Amino acid sequence: MNMLRKGILLLCILLLAAGTVMAQGAREPEREKIVVGVGGWAVEPTQRAIEELGFTEETGIEVEVVTRPGAPPEFISQMTSAILGGTSPYDVIDMEDDVAVGFSRSGWLVDLDPLFDDEFWSDWPEAMIEMTDTWSRHQGELFRIPHNYEAQYFWYRKDILDQHGLQPPKTWDEMVEVAKAVTSGNRYGVSDGLGQGAYLGVYMTYLTQQAGGNVYDMGPEFEVALQFLYDMIHKHKVFPISALDKDYDQVNNDYMQDRVVMMRQWPFFYGVARSDESWFEEDKAAVALPPAGPAGPIAYAASWGWSIPKTAGNVDAAKTFVEFMSRTEHQGYLAQLDTWFLSARKSCLEAMDGAGMAKYLQMYSDAQAIGTRPFHPAGQEAHTVVEETSAAFLTNQLSLEEAVRRGRERMAGLGR
Q1: What average pLDDT does the segment 197-219 reach?
Q2: Beta-bridge partner residues of 265
Q3: Greatest CA span in the chain, whole angstroms?
Q4: Which residue from 145, 168, 185, 303 has the least number of CB within 10 angstroms?
C-alpha cells in the first residue's frame, strides 16, 4: 500500500511538472509566419511598410518578404509546378494584370471579397473600380486587390528641349519633329523598353489605344501604331533599334546618361530619377501629357495587387496581411513611402495633396488621359502574340501585311 501511495504521489508530481511546462509554452506561443513574394524593386518598400505600420505587433504574424521571378514566363513556370504539387513558395503574391488573370482562370486563387465591405469600396473612384472589375474579378470573385493605379507617363528632358527652344510634343507628328531636332550621335529623341517577354507588348498596347483601337483585335489601328513605331526606328531614325533588346532599367539608364530625351515610362521612374542626387534636377525628369495619336492623348493604367494561392501554407494569416495592407487609413502613408503604392483612391490622393507623382496622376486624370487597359482572357498568351507579331515586322523578317495576317490567325486561335 505504501508503494502504491508513493507511486500515485510520483505520478502527481510528474503531471504537475508537465502542466507547468505546457503552461509556460502557452504563455509564449510560436508566432505565425507568412512569405510574401514581390518584384525585386518592391522588396525594400514592402518591408518598410510592414515594419512602420506595425503589422507584426498588431497581428502577431511575422512576414518574410522575398523576391519572386520578375519575368512572367519564369514566374508562371515556378507557380505552375508548385500549385500542381499542392504547395506554394508564397502565402501572398504581388501580381501584375496578365499573370493574375491566367491564375484566376485556372482556379488557383482565393476569393478576397469577404475581406472588404461597402465602406471600404466607397474610397475607390469609378475608374479604379472599373479597372478592378475588369482585371481582378472572375465569375463574381475578387481574386486580387490592387494596391496601385499605374498610369503611363510621358517623361522628357526639359533641360535639353529648352536648349533647342522646343516645347514638349502634343501629337505623334510633333514628337517625330522634336525627336529629329534633338537626335545626334548616340543620343536618340525617343525610346522605350521593347524587349520581348514583358515590354514590347506594353508599348504596342499604348500606341494602339492612341490610334483608337484594341491591340488584341489587331485591326487597322494596330497596323497604324506598328507602322508609326517602325518609321520612328527605320525611316526617321529617332528611336534606337537596340530598344528591342532592352528592359526598363536599361532605358532609364539611357535617359539618365543623356542618350534618350523622351520616353514613356511607369511612375516608378520618379524614384529612380531622384535616387542619383548628383544627376537629378527637376528639368531632367519633367512630365507632360502623352503625345496624341489619331484617337487623342491616351495612356492606360495597369495595376499590381495582392493575391493568395489556394495552396498557400497559411491562408488565414495571408488574408490578415492583405486586409491590413489594403485598409483605407494606410493608403496615404503607403503612397508617401513609395510610388509603388500610389493609387487614385480618395484617401490616397487626399493625403498626398499633390506631392510627388500624385500631381501627375491628378493632371492625367483631369485631362481624361487615362484609359482602361484592353483585356484578353488568354492574358500572357495574347501578349506574346502581340510581341512576336510586332517584332517580326520591326526587325524586317516579315512585311506589315504578312506579320499582321499571321498574328490575327494566332489571336483567333486563343478565343475571347
Answers
A1: 95
A2: 153
A3: 110
A4: 185
